Prior knowledge:
By secondary structure, this protein is of the alpha/beta class.
Amino acid sequence: MTDLTKTPQPASPLDTARTQLASAVEILGYDEGLHQMLATPRREMNVAVPLRRDDGEIELFMGYRVQHNISRGPGKGGLRYSASVDVDEVRALAMWMTWKCAVVDVPYGGAKGGVTIDPRQHSTQELERVTRRYTSEIMPIIGPERDIMAPDVGTDEQTMAWVMDTYSVSQGYTIPAVTTGKPLAVGGSLGRATATSRGVVHAAAAALGDAGVKLDEVTAAVQGFGKVGSHAARFLSEAGTRVVAVSDESGGVVRSDGLDVAALLRHVQRTGRVAGFDGGDPIDNVDLLALDVDVLVPAAVEGVIDAETAVNVKARWVVEGANGPTTSEGDRVLAERGVVVVPDILANAGGVVVSYFEWVQANQAYWWTEPEIEDRLEHRMVTAHRAVAALASAEGISLRDAALAIGVRRVAEAHQIRGLYP
């Protein structure tokens, strides 16, 4: 008998990812066998990561690398450092990477990695030791033709340099293409650091354009002011959008006539947090989601727009800068209220697009100019949006369902063409 006194547990990222896949499978009419192949990670590795701390004490962390699908090419996905990381979260993120790579038609499969560690509690030297040990533990399954890492929450270009160096030393020569998002001095690409954010703005512009609206005619709020959200707010502001609110884990700030985003960026660079900025009034993360703006950019963490918070969303467009910020129930509520959701596997795909460019450049040892990269990124994002919007219009489905259908179909086609071995 069901205990009605228990509080329902919120949907996990993996629950959301599996529900989204099931919806795409239903649209595409695939059988259960193919569904299970698409739902199940191809390969997983769980590793223990011991750390000798600066004071000599030993601490143990868990690390994960999940290769969800490699039918269209090597695995591709970020490395996340967070105290909340577990294998199910990594599985969900790897699945989303599979569809994301397929939607923007780059020749990768989906992968993701994580270490259950709070990087804020450790010195740079400790993080280097963790990174190198984690890399050495997963060495058998990574490589420029196997699985290519990139920065994610809690990691950065320096982390990728450590991964690249550790892998290269083990092989006896320098292999820049084993990671993307590296510093320029060791084979990084111009434009990579801000690529996800630029992709978000290209996706927003394309979605608004379908309704005959321009970026300089709207207001926006951005939840999350890290690598993605901060640059997205800057690029939106530079495009003429009135950015009225932003927030991070410390809190947020709102100003109805528009924030001075440049001044806010300087404040965050100086203090490390949005809270305390004197160019607006304080606001918390939940209240930001309910602001009366045209465009809402959730660019923080998974699951912030659920059945409860979606009811209060007043934005006409939700452009997902984070991975999985909207649960399946949140999606349903937003759809019922007529909110257009530009899904994460399309909206934040700019990062993997320019990661692909970096990988290509590293393999060729030939480097492109920043204008070349920006033009190619915009072309990829606009082309992908047109395909998604056309399918959504033709089939009368949401942009998310259309993006998932395109991504899942391309992966399934690769499965079917390659065949089943043995």
